Amino acid sequence: MRQLFFLLLVGLITACATDQSAPSPSSSSNQAPSIRILSPSNGATVSGAGTRAEVSISDDKAVTRLTRQVNGGPEQDIAIQPTQSGNIIFWIPLVSGSNTAVIRVYDAEGLSASATLNLQVGGSSSGGSGGGSFGTDYGGYTLPSGPTYYVSPSGSNANDGSRERPWATLSFAVQKLKPGDVLRVLPGSYNESVQVTASGTSSQRITIASDIRWGAKLNAQGNLFGIDVRGSYVDIVGFEVTNATNSGIISWAPYNRFLFNHVYGIRAQCDSNGGAGVNMSSPDSSDGVMLGNLVHDIGDLSAGFCTRIHGIYQGAPRGLVQNNITYRARGFGITSWHAATAVTISNNLSFANLYGGISVGSGDNTRGNRAENFLVANNIVVGNPRGISEEGNTGVNRFVNNLVWNNTTNWRLQTSTQQGSLSLDPGFVNFQPDGSGNYTLQSSSPAIDKGITERAPAIDFQAKPRLQGSAPDLGPFEVR
Ligand SMILES: [Ca+2]
Ligand SMILES: [Ca+2]
Description:
Belongs to the polysaccharide lyase 9 family. Helix content is 5%, strand content 40%. The protein is mainly β. It has two domains: 30-121, Immunoglobulins (Immunoglobulin-like, Sandwich), CATH 2.60.40.10; 148-441, Single-stranded right-handed beta-helix, Pectin lyase-like (Pectate Lyase C-like, 3 Solenoid), CATH 2.160.20.10. It has an eleven-stranded parallel sheet with strand order 8-9-12-15-18-21-24-27-30-33-36, with no helix packed on it. A nine-stranded parallel sheet has the order 10-13-16-19-22-25-28-31-34, with no helix packed on it. The longest helix has 18 residues, at 2-19. The protein is globular, with a radius of gyration of 25 Å. The site of one calcium ion has 8 residues, from strand 3. One calcium ion binds at residues 448-449, 468-469, 471-473, 478, 480.
């Protein structure tokens, strides 16, 4: 009798709690999250080693976890920020033939929902979407899941920036951004020079991304800069940038990241301003990241070398310069100067530049810094007058496990020594000095598994996992 009364009491309390219309902590008011697959379509045939996928997710409180399970394998987490609703882009690795991928969402209470994709992989297994020997997908890189806005050449700046009603110009859209926001720029041509003055925070970065890698094509129309970042904690992702007269993408403040961009045809002048494809030469642009960029044809090559015009330019402390491909710059493919110190330069490919491949240096004593405590590792440097050099005012730097080949002078160090370098043909699939080749490594390449893991990036140029096999491979592409 006492037990029955207790059960009735519990029932009454539960009923009361359920009756309340205001949000309640009771578990009975918690609803399961939902998931809808936006792309690819179920049953689609794709080529390559996987596909980019996009899902729409929501929950009454917040989705806290997203996973993928491919072909009955382990359930793998896809990194997301908790969100009540949003669209998430991620990578699904696939094998030849039939594949089944189960995508599952969870809320904080452990309720879940799933959606299943059946995908067929046929045709060529090389490249990925977009083709070309450089690879043009984001691999495992996923956009953050913050408030998201859209730009499209067919949009209007009178719109609200939603997916259905996108804005028309980047210059307008970037003025709307607040910390944590994501701006997705849809494929097409944008004829403008963009200045970004907004800043994110360390936990709420601002992301400005071409929706498809190199799909948003920005022509700077002969202005100094293509994308000119004055704020901090801003990510510039996946743009094609050309026709600027100083720099393609430039940072003037700390903690910015330039990822997966393609910058070429920058008509910098050989004067005291110089220029670069991807430029963090400002002493204030410390703690930056330049990763996975393709940078070439920087400066008027017919005028010969110029030591003020570079592919990638680091001028501030503690930057990361990783996984980039740079060729045909009038100066160095990758250089440092001004206040650069303690910079990491690793897993890059630099070839056919008019002055040198990679240089570590400073010369004007900016901020009292000199070029020391650099780590230069796992790079491939081919076919430049100077391979890897120290220039100007340098201290002790570490040059570890780099491959230098067929440079007029492979090494020109002043105050440091190098360890573990290779001077061998790297064994590219097809080396061409004009950029038309395929710079992935043949399976017989001596550069496979020859890198060090210290400060190695987690991903490669195509955002595939970097740590494969017994060690990282040299250069931007991880083969196995
Ligand atoms: Ca829920
Ligand atoms: Ca490896």
